[in-house]
Model the fold of this input.
Amino acid sequence: MIERQHINALKAIVGPKGVITAPENMGPYITEWRDKFLGKTQLVLLPASTKEVARIVRYCNVHGVKIVPQGGNTGLVGGGIPGLEGADEILLSSRRLVSEVQVNANGYSLIATAGTTVTEMQEAAANHDRLFALALASEGSCTAGGITATNAGGVHVIRYGTTRDMLLGIEAVLPDGSIINELSGLRKDNTGFPLSQLLAGSEGTLGFITRVCFKLFPREKTHSTSWVAVPSPKHALELLGMARDICEDQVSVFELMCRDALDFTFNHIPGVRDPLEACHPWYVLLETASSANNSALDQRMQSLLERALETKIILNGTVAQSLDQRHLFWRIRESISEAQKLEGGSIKHDISVPLDRIADFIASATEALKKAYQGARVTPFGHLGDGNLHFNVMQPKNGEKEAFLAHWEGMNKLVHDIVLAHGGSISAEHGIGVLKKSELARTKPTEELDAMRSIKNALDPNGIMNPGCLFD
Done:
């Protein structure tokens, strides 16, 4: 238990509006949205300024109080949930770190406080005829600090990169309470270690991010969106190559979906329907985009689909003829995770594999899973354009959810070993958190783990920042 004197001292720093102590009000902060992780804490703090964050962290460092940082609590690996594994930790939330987004249209950058949502940054950029390029299903809830701490990906990585690629700098509070500020927006700065890049993807283990400076891009003014059926992932990759040849660097989205994942969506999500009449084994959501008002995107897309049909790379396809039809395509894709939750138990793998090996990986892993787990339904989907798949496995039809989920650790090991055999990564965009901590220790080379621990010990010698995350 955290001593009462420390609780009172920390409460005094933020005042009554920045404190939650009643257990009945803590649900949104201590529960992961999939209900896989339920934490506990004596204190949730919601500072309203960087100075308040610094005072909190400095006090905790001096008195040995452990901190779990949290953004929008949209994570999937338990990295932002306090009190797991019996730990006594306070939760430090960025939700009150909100202010107007500062957009520098001429400099193609914006600065946002840590509690600003992705949607708010997208809207602020659009108001200045610019694009904030990160796009993901949780964009209405996930925040600037959270996406940076986890190096979020999303559907546009194929064209714009991950959060780290869009990052120009951060302001953060280090574990001793000191503040670093790299918010100048410089595109070139060779003055030593890039601290902002170090903190990106560190999952709150090296400091608490308070503000972020991101790159902006020319606003996408025209889109061409198609829904395409393909015989296999191998054919999908051939379609990707052809799309890049014909549409060049305008390919903005390339999402792969298996039929089972779509059936869950059509069965559980009201208002969605199959864009194609016949059923096919695999599908691709392909979108191209341009910053020009009068582009030839649809003509290029039509040429692509015609050539792909002629060469039997695709089985069928349709190009969205209206904004409503485009929204339908996107709603189907973005509803898959929700539909899987409604379908039953799902064991998840957020993996990446080199593009030229991803079809072989899908075949090998699917065969191994079906052999080891009778009746399990393998339902891969995700960002094929950048090699990242959500390689999820659903419980057997009419099976028991809890009995199936008990296989989580063993199934992860099976899939991750196949991932590594194909030169891939066990975590593409969701991070390690608590969920994959043992798998990181098992699969990461010792030399790399030792280097990571050395950095952690140098910046956080007292081990107060998210001590249960990444490694012990």
